[in-house]
Amino acid sequence: MTAPDTALFVARLAALRAELDRRGLDAFIVPRADPHQSEYIPDNAERLSWLTGFTGSAGVAVVVRDRAAIFIDGRYTLQVRDQVDTRAFQTLHLVTDSHTDWAARAVGDGGRVGFDPWLHTAPWVDQARQTLEKTGAALVPVADNPVDAIWDDRPPPPQAPIVPHPVAYAGETAESKRSRLGTALAEQEVDAAVLTSGESLAWLLNIRGGDVARTPLTLGFALLHRDGHVELFVDPAKLTAGLETHLGNAVSVQPPDAFGPALDRLGSEGKTVLVDPQRTVTWVFDRLHRAGAVVQRGEDPVVLPRACKNETELAGSVAAHIRDGAAMVRFLAWLDRAAEAGQVTEIGAADRLHAIRAEDPLFRDISFDTISGAGPNGALVHYRATAATDRVLDRDSLYLVDSGAQYLDGTTDITRTVAIGRPTEGMRRHATLVLKGHIALSTALFPEGVKGSQLDCLARQFLWAEGLDYDHGTGHGVGSYLGVHEGPQRISAQPNTVALKPGMILSNEPGYYRSGAYGIRIENLVAVAPRPTPADGERPLLGFDVLTLCPIDRRLVVPELLTPAERDWLNGYHARVHETVGPLLGDAADRTWLDAAMEPI
Questions:
Q1: Which residues of the chain, if any, have pLDDT below 70?
Q2: Which of 428, 418, 403 is nearest to 338 (CA)?
């Protein structure tokens, strides 16, 4: 990575301090966030990056009159050193070092710490206020963000067009969804629910957009009423021809600045309003409370229905994964041939995979920036190749590629680790341990009501037995032509109160990372599905249907470490890949490569 432009960021930091002094603030908190609490945020919300140079997906800065700090998680320990002037910003851990504690100590008794209520959730505000008050400091909301006041060339808000998502892919009309969820609100004696996430708007109204990278979202706000009527607050200029007909008479489109008055109206009428505290900024809560609404805290009503895919969405995901599997086979066959010459680079490989996927008529984008890591770069879990770090795929090394695509009928996410040349016995052993955990999770049977956190150890057990582990979750939820990271379901060691339900799609991605040497990860997407209950069973069973169809590199498998059942699973999986994906390959060389890659172990 290129070194940070020290003078530029020092000047921006000085300008922000001058602005804080003008406003009578002793400190200001700058999160990487937008008003929708999105994972991927638009360019005009990249305040943390503009101020510090840090481009990671999670972080927060605290700027005080005489010092500043940036808080990042363990994924970005190296990246923050490359991108941020550490003389201007102290670097601390986002999880183990509390940024509100740091701010409280820095400003002391009587200090005023500013924050933007459009960027923080209500629980964060409650916690931060308590922390600051212990030292006599105050948490102060600002009417307009001071970073914006000094950001002269700030990009405009995104204006991507909003398009209908056909019911042929959605599987249920927007009218049906609105009516169904409105009835559920009425049963809870709720008058309306506030929706602020792009994913919720997209699923509920069967619309897609392009306001953020890699995820087809429209950023806006909505009110879902108990009668199924929806007020949608977006820039009317985003509406495409025919969209109002698609939305129907029960959806009224209003400009974003009408959102606040609509909340005021609910309050003046004494309405009970459902608001999700984990996904909604505190500005919404404050506005409703001031207006006199009865605010009921609870989960966004769209979240769980969206996570449980219907039959059409599942069928679309199956179809998308078959085509994506063919694209991956073409890529891996090319990679084996091209890597022999020693001319393939990380960026070159990622570009080739993108080009192959883009041939699909239903392809709309990749689902995230491809992780293309050769050798030691593969050990960086969230590595992104740049011109400065781009490595050649050397012989006798490992190459890790984690990638995915957005198709109209489904979202994919797959990781494969490939041997370039001859792998060492250590590489093969570690890869086999990862594979054993992957198989254990793939074949798990569990009763209804089980949470993902209860299954996480299945994927880690073989690594644990040898004193090894990995520092990321084992599985995340995936959307249907929506977010590649979708809640509320997940598989991780962190406690999760959400039970796995039929129709949920998750990743299964155990890994092992040897710092400075190589990384190994095997990732398939799976769908939760019913399984037969044994004759004497007392609870209905669930399991996973594997969606991803792509070879797992046999060169990295130590057959002696597999049980007969594990060997049967791998051979059966490869037979299914061969039978399903093989007919889509038009090139004889690709078919020959697949034949060899599918040889039974």
A1: 1-4
A2: 418
Pairing status of strand 486-491 against strand 446-447 = unpaired
Nearest to 398, CA basis, from 557, 518, 523, 551 = 518
Cβ neighbours, 10 Å, residue 245: 9
Residues 36 and 219: beta-carbon distance below 8 Å: yes
Contact between 27 and 64 (Cβ < 8 Å) = yes
- Which neighbouring-strand residues pair with 499? 451
Is there a domain that residue 465 lies in? yes
Pairing of strands 371-374, 363-366: unpaired
User: SS3 breakdown of the chain: % helix, strand, coil, rounded to 5?
Assistant: 40, 20, 40
Both tokens assigned to 89: 């910003």
Question: Is 496 found in the same domain as 350?
Answer: yes
Q: Note whether 83 and 99 are same-domain residues.
A: yes
Give the residue from 246, 231, 45, 44 showing the smallest Cα distance to 161.
246
CA distance 404 to 386: 19
Contacts 24+ apart (CB under 8 A), 252-261: 256/220, 256/221, 258/233, 259/221, 259/233, 260/287
Cα separation, 588 vs 143, whole angstroms: 64
Q: Is the peptide bond before 488 cis (omega within 30 degrees of 0)?
A: yes
Cβ-based neighbour number of residue 329 at 10 Å = 26
Q: What is the pLDDT of residue 81?
A: 87
Same domain, 476 and 332: yes
**Both 372 and 258 in a single domain?**
no
- Tell me if 177 is assigned to some domain: yes
Residue 79 is predicted with a pLDDT of 83
Amino acid at 145: N
Tens of pLDDT, residues 563-590: 999 999 999 999 999 999 999 999 999 9
CB 577 within 8 A of CB 550: yes
Q: Report the distance separating Cα 546 and Cα 526, nearest Å.
A: 4
Instruction: List pLDDT tens digits, range 57-109.
Output: 899 999 999 999 999 987 787 788 889 999 999 999 988 899 999 999 999 99
Domain that includes residue 504, residue range: 308-596
Determine the Cα–Cα distance for residues 529 and 500; give it in Å rounded to an integer: 10
* Residue 31 token pair: 């999160």
Q: What is the DSSP string of 18-63?
A: HHHHHHT-SEEEEES--TT--SS--GGG-HHHHHH----SS-EEEE
pLDDT at 1: 45
For strands 163-164 and 207-208, give the pairing. antiparallel
Question: Quick one: angle between helices 456-464 and 425-442, nearest 10?
Answer: 150
Which pLDDT value is given to residue 559? 98
The total of structural domains in the chain comes to: 3
Tell me phi and psi for residue 487, to 5 degrees: -90, 180
One-letter amino acid for residue 178 of the chain: R
Q: Which two tokens stand for residue 326?
A: 């063919």
Gyration radius (Cα) of the chain, Å = 25
Q: What is the model's pLDDT at position 3? A: 55
Could you tell me the CATH number of the domain that includes residue 396? 3.90.230.10
pLDDT of residue 4: 62
